[in-house]
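Teaching assistant here, posting this on the class forum so everyone can see the example we discussed in section. The complex has two components, and the goal was to see what a joint structure prediction looks like when all of them are supplied at once.
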Amino acid sequence: MRDSFTHTSGTGGKNLDQRILELFHAKKGGVVSGEEFSRVLEVSRTAVWKHIKSLKDLGYQIVAVPSQGYRLVTSPDILIPAEIAAGLTVTRIGRRIICFRETDSTNEVAFRLAEEGVEEGTVVIAEKQRRGKGRLGRRWESPAGVNLYCSVVLRPPILPMQAAQLTFLSTVAVARAVAETAALRPFIKWPNDVLINGMKVAGLLNEMSAETEKVNFVVLGIGVNINMQRTQFPDDLRHPATSLALEAGKDVSRLYFTRNLLKTLDELYDSYLARGYAPVREEWLARCDICGRKVKVSFQESGITGVAVGIDDYGALLLQLPDGRVEKVLAGDVTIL
Amino acid sequence: MDIKDIKSLIKMVTETDINEFELEGPEEKIRIKRGVVPEFVQYQAPQQQMIAVPQAVPTHLVPHPVGSTASEAPAAAPVAAEKGEQITSPIVGTFYRAPAPDAPPYVEVGQTVEKGQVFCIVEAMKLMNEIEAEYRCKIVKICKENAQPVEFGEPLFIVEPL
């Protein structure tokens, strides 16, 4: 199936849809005349009419008021660049946003665009993923219109061995956005799970293209269950999962969440480039509830038990064993005992 | 299965017209391949031993240590395939030969790999790093087992540039 493409925003100027929506939003529910649209936007009334029609197709309820103009009655909670970019001031992440109604996987699209040289900070978002990617060929359930599926292209001037630090950066960004937009208290589980009441609310999958001593690019893949309902979760989940709406008891605006997440990612990445990993690590530790607690780390066939004492410069979990030695854990599944 | 058994198995196979032979049990997997180009016999046990035999002719069995676990097979001549370029890991992580546990490996020994083609994945902290070929080459040896930890700079493959 072909990808159905919604919109893209460039770095230079805003597109017409975005400017039409801005005019409507400025009137706060009032009428905007066709004459005003064509004067401010410097386009013909026919062009305005065409764009209003395309906005209506996207779910905007716009009524024509005879001999006065148009009035925006309600806006749908859809993810299009015109809405996401409205009021979003960022340095890098989100300067260019590409939205799909449907695609196989936003990570795949972003990876391909990155290979083709797309600028740093480009964000790919889809309303639905046909084959949402999880770790090692697993699937990330991606029904249409309820969640956020997004991928961000970064070109950090770091060594490949430092790139895992970005896993912690995106985890912190998601946790912070959840806390700020849904008034919930998420906890981070090492290294990159964001949990609410012990259930997984987001999935993060980062992919890198690198040479021996140079990172070409990193794609941060972020899936957040926002308004997903209980019946939309598959039966064969590996870990218990939830959504922001299920935990908050009401729907959460996907648009508001997405804007907040991009702004947070941009701030954290800006700080990472300027000051390094330390601030990310500090916030990660503050949002994680395992430090000082007795945990078990399970591997495929074995496991070790100890007290979690922190993470090192590359994100390895530091586990103090019963004999006092501190072990660096690079992989494994952590359970609090 | 011990070295003797493998030796006789190889002998058995080489005396026939069989080009490829595979035997899989609950604990080990044995694969013997024959061909004009040098091929390898691999013996994989839970102890991570690997024995490489140039061509399918049992002239000598060569031990090759994998990770920190040295093979217990008798010492012999160095692996002929060591000459060639090493593809090393750019990060500390876990080595994966396939995109998914049930998917076929990205590459096999003897295969020609085009520039830009993926050799494997090394994962560190949920960051997946696809290692791509920087030049056209042929896989001479795969140095690590699937899902094993790898160190920074550790060889993953030996390749012959084409």
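For the discussion questions: The mean pLDDT of chain B is 71. Chain B touches chain A at residues 88, 90-94, 96, 99-103, 123-130, 132, 134, 147, 149, 152 (CB under 8 Å). Think about how each of these relates to the inputs above.
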